Amino acid sequence: MNRELLLQAFNSLRANTLRTILTVMGVAVGVFSIIAVMTALEAIDRSVATGLSSLGANTFELQKYPATFMSGHGRGRFTNRRDITYREGLLFRTLMEGKARNIGLQVATSGAQVAYLESATNPDVTVFGADEHFAAANGFDIAMGRNLTGQDILYSRNVAIIGDEVRERLFSGSTDPVGALIKVRGDVYRVAGVFVRKGAAFGQSQDNLVVIPLPRHLARMSHGKSISITVEAPSRDGYQATIDQALGAMRVARGLTVAEPNDFELRTNESLVASFREFQQTIATGAFIISFMALVTAGVGIMNIMLVSVTERTREIGIRKSVGAPKRSILQQFLLEALALSFAGGLSGVLLGTAAGNVIALVFNLPLLLPWFWIVISLLVSSVIGISFGLYPAFRAAGLNPVDALRSR
């Protein structure tokens, strides 16, 4: 009997294909919005979890601007702060001597193109000005060649360490990049080494970079731009103590009095996670509101379509009742039709939303995934919407008087 009801329900929907498709699309839009957003957010969430290795478990940064990764905070009110200068960074390192494992000074400029002979990268390479401690403090290992040395920094030599992605773009598999001359923003540098591939963090490639001596970068590219300082604590147990010592040393290096607040920011793994969670909550809330409104609208559409269907099929219902069809059978058929409409819309929204969310993940170099939890929730909610808004038309159909129904035309 249930099989017959299913066949009758699907035959009725197929008889009105255009109306069915339009109704299904209404549900699909609501499910699509939440699935697409949550797929992208889960991909970013996984990237955050793996990307925290870019700082390291025992590492933190001191910089001019706060860790506003995907946060609602603006940068405007921090613009008037004094830049953290190279001299202050060197003084900070002196004050922290023996209290940290590594202290790296760096500044970055994005959007550079790197060229070698007839080959060139896209204009999307990040050029870091850094000292000899940059690699150790930021978790970079040397694959070939050597790291920057204190002499490179002291004499501001035109040497560079390149990321593996830059190496792949400029040099063929058999070409040794060490010793080659590359051009970066009009200046020529000799490749001293190549970093081991690190992959992406927070959707950003960590291999599409060039590192040159910090004094040369400040003179040729950043022109006094604020530097950031990466500090690696000796151990996890001493992490907070190192942070406290670093904050005090930075205040001294900046010449702040006791009454003056910090005019620099602390960037830790925890601050990055908190910033992302705030962004995630805001986007998820917006997606839920949009999805709820779309699904309620789609539910009203399902109810209207089913009421129209009841009106059009009044004579059919009267015939079925006259030959002995029980009310429960009529009720089940119309509920199945409403459920089929909503479930088909939910399934379509899940497929399109998952695809859209993963396209966003691909664009930002994030991992692909299937948000099973949200898929199940979306299908359940769409089914509940179909049944809830299909109840009134179904009861109306089941409650028709067979004599009156047979008289309709």
UniProtKB/TrEMBL annotation:
It comes from the Bacteria. The chain crosses the membrane at residues 21-41, 287-310, 330-352, 372-392. Pfam families: FtsX (PF02687), MacB_PCD (PF12704). The keyword Membrane applies. One of its GO terms (molecular function) is transmembrane transporter activity. It is a multi-pass membrane protein. Residues 20-245 form the MacB-like periplasmic core domain. Belongs to the ABC-4 integral membrane protein family. This is FtsX-like permease family protein.
